[in-house]
Design goal:
Layout (H helix, E strand, L loop, with lengths): L1 H18 L7 E5 L5 E8 L2 E17 L2 E16 L4 H8 L11 E10 L4 E10 L2 E13 L4 E12 L21 E14 L1
Antiparallel strand pairs: 1-3, 1-9, 2-3, 2-9, 3-4, 4-5, 5-6, 6-7, 7-8, 8-9
């Protein structure tokens, strides 16, 4: 009888301890900057501009088949206009836009990934011009069998005025008329990362 009770206690102890087993540690995937892209669109009353900006570096934290975090550095001095306008590119790098001489990079740090499967909501902190604000957006994230991970966010909306980029904003300049530039700009991001 004593042996049976000891066996039962041992079994209970093993089950209890296994319930508190350490979770698996996330694996760090390094973003391949050459295979990843960031495109932007800025709108104004009389039209729009679009172009690219380069990802300098990045990592994704992957736990099993789920992305749980990540950090990304964007090279703001690499901003390009799709039409090749040196004047526009120079203005975007100037102090009244991104001020790339003083703030050569922007960062995004993932704080939460919500949802199940590939379609998730990514939340994090975006820092532009030394100002950090929370940002959330829908994304499709896949951890592939070949040891790579991919992420796609087709429309990330950023309010530039939250980062002290007020040039041409109707929110700050009432009499600007048809020279107004939309407060929001959009980013589309495609990331490829590997272990």
């Amino acid at each position: 009888m004593k042996l049976k009770i000891s066996s039962i206690f041992l079994l209970v102890a093993v089950v209890a301890l296994s319930a508190f087993k350490n979770p698996t540690k996330p694996v760090t995937y390094t973003v391949d900057a050459a295979k990843s892209t960031i495109t932007w669109v800025g709108k104004k009353v009389t039209g729009s501009h679009n172009g690219t900006v380069a990802l300098q570096s990045g990592t994704l934290a992957v736990n099993g088949k789920s992305v749980t975090g990540g950090t990304f550095v964007i090279d703001m001095a690499s901003i390009k206009d799709a039409d090749g306008s040196a004047k526009l590119e120079g203005h975007l790098k100037a102090d009244d836009f991104f001020g790339t001489a003083k703030f050569p990079t922007s960062t995004f740090v993932i704080t939460k990934v919500a949802g199940s499967g590939a379609n998730v909501t990514v939340s994090g902190n975006l820092t532009i011009k030394g100002i950090t604000k929370p940002l959330s957006f829908p994304a499709t994230v896949t951890v592939n069998a070949d040891g790579t991970a991919s992420a796609l966010a087709g429309k990330i909306v950023v309010d530039r005025t939250k980062y002290d980029i007020k040039y041409g904003s109707k929110s700050f300049f009432d009499s600007i008329g048809d020279k107004a530039i939309d407060d929001n700009f959009e980013l589309a991001v495609k990331l490829v990362a590997k272990k």
